[in-house]
Amino acid sequence: MEATTKPPSPSLALPWKTRMLLSVITTASDAACRTNGTVNRRLLNLVDFRAPVTSKSINGVMSHDVVVDQARNLWFRVYVPTKHAGEDLPVIVFFHGGGFVFLAPDVLAYDAVCRRFARKLPAVVVSVNYRLAPEHRYPAQHEDCFDVLKFLDDEDNRSKSLPENGNLLRCFLAGDSAGGNLAHHVTQRACEFNFRQLKVIGVVAIQPFFGGENRTDSETRLKGTPIVSLKRTDWMWKAFLPPGEAFNRDHPIINVSGPKSADISKIQFPPTMVVVAGFDALHDWQKRYYEWLKNSGKEVYLYEYPTMCHAFYIFPELPESRQLIDQVKEFVRKVSVSSNVRNY
To answer: Roughly what angle, to the nearest 10 degrees, separates helices 178-190 and 140-152?
Structure first.
């Protein structure tokens, strides 16, 4: 008998520069999360570098900020690709990650990512600043993000906030990590809301932040991977959920495909792309999300990156980051064409 050799297991493929940045991010995040459930925001400010708006085009993109509700510090940053002024462009409403606890649209990494989306797709990108936990617990984040859709659905607000060629009938909700969770739940709510001029036709869920009471294989196996670990996610879920017996990790806002999940089989949930990475502790929850959408009869596409970790795509030096941007571009194009055919 011939001996069979097992194919080598994939390994985390990151250059040293990316590993160093991930180490700094992870260390700073851990240091800011206090044992009493609060966040040391003063410490975070030391490494939390922000990008200003650019009223003039830089690398083909200009940006401006729009305030929705000053009392809630609810605002969004709009990215406009200047080389496509005469084209009908989709509107990508983007929700940043950070475990519902960290980050904002004007953080350098997210400003850069949204600029790349605006330039490469091309699209008008609306990046939302929502309230953060634990100072503001669920449902504050989801309410804020949905309120931005309602704000844009008002013609007066739209005309003052977006360029004329931003087509809200070609609206996609996108997000990574906690933003992927928001993209799903805000879309689900949008499906049951009567908008006047906004239509969500697609969802881009990049490594969405889901969980549950039971531990998955990827959660227990990938304890030492960057950004996300079982200890960190447990801390964030406790900071995010209101206190009380009714709130645990099987709450449908966290365990979207679990025992208390909503039945979406009867609603017109739009096509969805789900991105997962092999070295992301959330991998198994994200795969369950994909399977749940498929079993609910929804159009869903899975994009796997076996040698990547959580948040890999915010590092432009990685070929996989560029590949993901291209895949989002193709998904947006394909869904837009399909939507036009259905409407016709």
So the answer is: 50
Task: Encode pLDDT of 130-143 as tens digits.
Answer: 999 999 999 999 99
Is residue 229 annotated as part of the catalytic site, yes or no? no
Give the integer Cα–Cα distance in Å for 217 and 286: 12
Provide the phi-psi class of 268: left if phi over 0, else alpha when psi is between -120 and 50, else beta.
beta
Catalytic residue among 106, 144, 153, 280: 280
Distance from CA of residue 244 to its chain's centroid? 27
Q: Of 283, 310, 321, 336, which is the active-site residue? A: 310
> What does the pLDDT look like over 145-196, one tens digit per residue?
999 999 999 999 999 999 999 999 999 999 999 999 999 999 999 999 999 9
Q: Taking Cα atoms as reference points, which of 99, 97, 127, 123 lies closest to residue 111?
A: 127
Q: Which amino acid is at 190?
A: A
Q: Catalytic residue, from 177, 321, 336, 339: name it.
A: 177
pTM given for the model: 0.95
> Among this protein's residues, is 310 annotated catalytic?
yes
Residue whose token pair is 């844009």: 152
